[in-house]
Amino acid sequence: MSEANQAIFLSYSHDDAAVARRIAEALRSAGLEVWFDENELRGGDAWDSKIRKQIADCALFVPLISAQTEARTKGYFRLEWKLAVEQTHLIAEGVPYLAPIAIDGTRESGAVVPAEFLRVQWTRLPGGLPTPQFIEQLKRLLGGSSELAPASSRQPARAGQMPALLPAPPSRLPLIFGAIAVVAIVVAAFSWLRRPAAESAPALRRDAAATSNSAPPPTTPPPATAKVLNKSIAVLPLANMSEDKDTGFFADGVHEDLLTNLALVSELKVVSRTSVMQYRGTTKTMKQIGEELGVAYVLEGSVRRSGNKVRITGQLINTRTDEHVWAKSFDRDLTDVFSIQAELSKEIAGALSAAISPETKKFLERRPTENPVAYDDFLKGRDTRNRAPTASQAALDQSEKLFQSAVAQDPNFAAAWGALAEVHALKVFWDRDASAERKALGDAAIARAVSLAPDAPDVIRAVGTYAYYAYRDYDRATAQYVKLARLQPNDPTVFASLGLIYRRQGRWAEALINQRRAVELDPANIAYNRGLLSSLNYVRRYDEALVQQRRLVALLPGELWEELSLAEQAFTGTGSFQAVDELLARLTPAQKESRPALFKRKYWTWARNDYAEFKRLDQLQPSYPEQEQPVVGAIFAAWTHLAHGDAAAARARVEGFVSEMQALVKKEPSNLRARLYLGSMEGILGHKEEAIRLSRSVTDALPVSRDAIDGMSTIYWAADTYATIGEKDLALAELAKMVKLPTTLSPAWWRTDPAFASLRGDPRFEALLNDPKINAPLY
């Protein structure tokens, strides 16, 4: 192969198009040339000639092998495979050319592939998710090395602070996790600083339907576009048939645990909890549900609990024929609920001809606790957490109380210890209680969980979540979720979490791949869609972000917040208020004066430089806690007053918060948010040296290398503070760092930020705004 041609040709069945697209995008993000025809088979001499020429000219031929290719004995991809085999006869011995990839559990033995494919080592990508190691392997092949190590054979080394609970991964892993939906783009830029409730943790709250603005789950999911797989199932919410309707948490808990069990069966595609919750009490037919969710089977059932007895029923229905495959009922003691869940999982897997490995069988048959009171408290705690925003103080306090009761009832309940540790970690992360005592409680709880059940999926998940939230130990958290991905290859919470993890470490290409995979597996999940939206904005893919925001509008019909965000998204990408003006013209007076609209309109007024209207709206609604902390709203209002020369109004706006932040910084020296807020307010009050000291202490403590999301936010926040106190050089130095950094603040917001009023007209600031790098997609 000539040096000039280093292209990779991807060959795939049209049933695997989504996987092929993910792989192509990852390779292109790494700077590799990929020949990947994204159109349907068109035929014709010109098209056929193009494909033949690309196969002849490419440096690597990469066939994707799967259950789909195995099932199709005819297909154009098989002609591509034969042409590639012919090409090998023209290539010198030992020069790499064929690089087969198995994207599922398809075995080499007996595979319906050309014999030449069996003479080279296959790469395995569970779930079709390209890893950094896989990309490096292909780069080595392009460089002429014939060694192709298995994609999952090497893992990066841990470099974190969390106490050693499990053996550290042997080599170097990426960093970790992230804040999910920053719904308003200007608000998103300050996600770490402004809005604790903005982060949702899908791995912590398994597919919770609760969203950051408490929106209801969608009533009409998008139509399924992928081919319906025979081994695909949706488990509808189990009806609570108990006389005591307060036991609804129990039926929901059984439902969630059943979904967790099914996610362990690698051959099954299981629709996650969020996408099925909308069908509680539905009148839709099974065929309609199957078409909407893209599944071949639906399980519906009920739970009846009376005293220490429980009855669980289920019937499996083929959505394509409306045939009842089987119906089962289980009458047991309450302590046997785990056996029922295991039996149901095995019955479903058997009906769908999905193999269960010995390891999976062991996990299915585990009994987390023998104490029904402890299990009740655990389910109640999980239900409380599922129904509230992640950072809700009341929910954290209540779930902590319930999980603490669960472990008191059964000190050997590993999952409850893990859940309790997660609550402690969230309190630390969101500065609800960042004390050393709180962290010590969390350390003890997670260590106890690991000592009881180190290999249980619940505990693996808890260790990953705890590492992230309590310590920002991204290496350890990533290692845990990679391990979980191997156990639960079709669990969207795993990929959503990995996507957020990679964002934190600045691995944006991998983040997008995993977040898109999560959305594919759970298309109606609002949190996952918002997470993908914010990532697209971070990497400046504004056109794609606009499409993604339209999807959220469709998923949440009638939600004013989403309509407002759609108009704002258009401004973010173009700097034009046309969409905003058109929306405002359509709104009713009541809608325009609603709390979400007042919040958005207030920020749009300073973007428009309409000071009089800003003052009116700020007086009408000083804060909107659903989207930002009151202290943050006060600081932004003060910056706006300063931009218009009203220093007295600026001081008055923040004076009520200064003593609160001073006390918090003294009590919790590690509370970086409080320190940064205090620094900004010191600047507003005219205490320049203290403002600079506090701001620098935060940017030094949390650099981008430690956390790509929060590190970026601290830089931008510090630049705001420096600009408002007249330190232009310091402000511009911070902004210059951001030209190459992902940020949800597009040039449109840089141009309108009131804190930057003193910078406008400065040639250095204008040069930054006009730098092509800050206006172009990063990935």
Describe this structure as you would to a colleague.
- The protein has 779 residues and is of the alpha/beta class.
- The protein is 54% helix and 7% strand.
- The chain has 36 helices and 11 strands.
- Strands 6, 7, 8, 9, 10 and 11 form a 6-stranded mixed beta sheet that branches. Strands 2-1-3-4-5 form a 5-stranded parallel beta sheet, sandwiched between helices.
- Helix 1 links the parallel strand 1 and strand 2.
- Helix 29 packs antiparallel against helix 30 (672-684).
- The longest helix is centred in the last third of the chain and has 21 residues, at 647-667.
- The radius of gyration is 27 Å and the shape is globular.
